[in-house]
Amino acid sequence: MKTLDELRQRLRQFARERDWEQFHSPKNLSMALIVEAAELVEHFQWLTQEQSKKLPEKTLREVEQEMADVFIYLNRMADLLGIDLLDAARRKMEHNAKKYPAHEVRGKADKR
Amino acid sequence: MKTLDELRQRLRQFARERDWEQFHSPKNLSMALIVEAAELVEHFQWLTQEQSKKLPEKTLREVEQEMADVFIYLNRMADLLGIDLLDAARRKMEHNAKKYPAHEVRGKADKR
Amino acid sequence: MKTLDELRQRLRQFARERDWEQFHSPKNLSMALIVEAAELVEHFQWLTQEQSKKLPEKTLREVEQEMADVFIYLNRMADLLGIDLLDAARRKMEHNAKKYPAHEVRGKADKR
Amino acid sequence: MKTLDELRQRLRQFARERDWEQFHSPKNLSMALIVEAAELVEHFQWLTQEQSKKLPEKTLREVEQEMADVFIYLNRMADLLGIDLLDAARRKMEHNAKKYPAHEVRGKADKR
Which residue ranges traverse the bilayer (chains A, B, C, D) (predicted)? Predict the structure, then answer.
């Protein structure tokens, strides 16, 4: 699986084969997405920032799986809503580049 | 911007130019990610599932921007942790395919 | 345990006895709180709204426990920050009553 | 407003006067609750743990309002589901006291 398009195709098939399309409204998928995001947060809740940068291999593999879940639901939702995530990210970054000019915000916390 | 790799490169540069690398610990990025996920959820909180499938164009454009934000933080975090999201998603889907065989779970709610 | 004040006292003692005060920064507690909120959301993610109003007894008991966890972290955090939750809620409701006059917003979705 | 019971009464009336009961399914309220929890997290996302312990007065007042919102939705949801939050918290703490005996977990991160 090499592209987001291929991922979306597979997710469509996965849901169809299980008759899960009935559960996959954008509303429900937004809930599933935030639940997975929280499972990611859970790994970091009691760590210091420094510890979070040097995760033990086992934790890193768990974190990777939670990130995969977020990624999966985000792409499933994007597919249903007809959203191109790479293109949306490109436009958001152009917007952010204007909103936070490097020389003005340098070293100040990201307020996005 | 055509690939996830290109997105990661741009996010790296964006943070570097603003001296934001100091804020971008995995711990902090997991918080930023869930905050954006919640801004996505907010759009759907009072909608019925049917309404969430037929968003007005204006809401859809806002939803798209929140999804872009989640996507951006997810890719930024993946870059810092050395995680390949497409590959992690592929492996997670293979795992899910075994865990939820189509003939067993058909029509029952996704329990991921 | 009859009052919020008693709950706060017990939470303080619970953390002290376990030497958990070192983990309980407001930052970390906000993360723990949202993780518990997501465990609550997880129970509802694939349900219809109607189903969410008629939970099976077993699910209701699990939901109750997740709500207890959110409540616990919220009170722990309030204690550390010197916040009186009942008083803060009272003031917020007075603010909301002015912001959303009943005759203006009747039947329109809560936009808080 | 001195008690949780009084808060619940007021929340009921607030929703009734605005005809918002139609939006207040447990599913939707769990979404509203996590959205408010995320607004709380947002205040802390780029802070160090030390900074989160010494919030400027203005930030503390904003944090207080977000906590009030979480508290409001939690109590509204508890009312609809017939849950007594103080009693549920008491039982959860008794459960936690057995699950995490002080002498065993002392100084190890809270794994709730």
Answer: none
**Subunit partners of chain B (3 or more CB pairs within 8 A):** A, C, D
pTM, full prediction = 0.96
**Is D55 in contact with D63 (CB distance < 8 Å)?**
yes
Q: Which of residues 36-95 of C touch B (CB under 8 A)?
A: 46-49
Tokens read off for A23: 């559960």
pLDDT confidence bin for A109, thresholds 50/70/90: confident
- Picking from B7, B42, D47, B71, the residue whose alpha carbon sits closest to that of residue A111 is D47
Q: Which residues in A lie closer than 8 A to residue C41 (C-beta atoms)?
A: 31, 34-35
Q: How far is B2 from chain C (nearest CA, A)?
A: 33
What domains are defined for chain B? 4-84 (1.10.287.1080)
Give the Cβ contact number of residue B57 at 10 Å. Answer: 7
pLDDT digits (tens, 9 = 90+) for B49-101: 999 999 999 999 999 999 999 999 999 999 999 999 999 999 999 999 999 99
Query: What does the alpha-carbon distance between residue A88 and residue A75 come to, in Å, rounded to a whole number?
Result: 12
End-to-end CA distance of chain D: 32
Residue count (chain B): 112
Which pLDDT value is given to residue A24? 97
The DSSP letter of residue D107 is T
Task: Name every residue whose Cβ is closer than 8 Å to that of residue C43 and which is 6 or more positions away in sequence.
Answer: C55, C59, C62, C63, C66, D30
pLDDT digits (tens, 9 = 90+) for D66-82: 999 999 999 999 999 99
Q: Which of C34, C47, C110 sits opposite B34 (nearest CB)?
A: C34
User: Rounded to whole angstroms, how far apart are CA atoms C60 and A43?
Assistant: 27
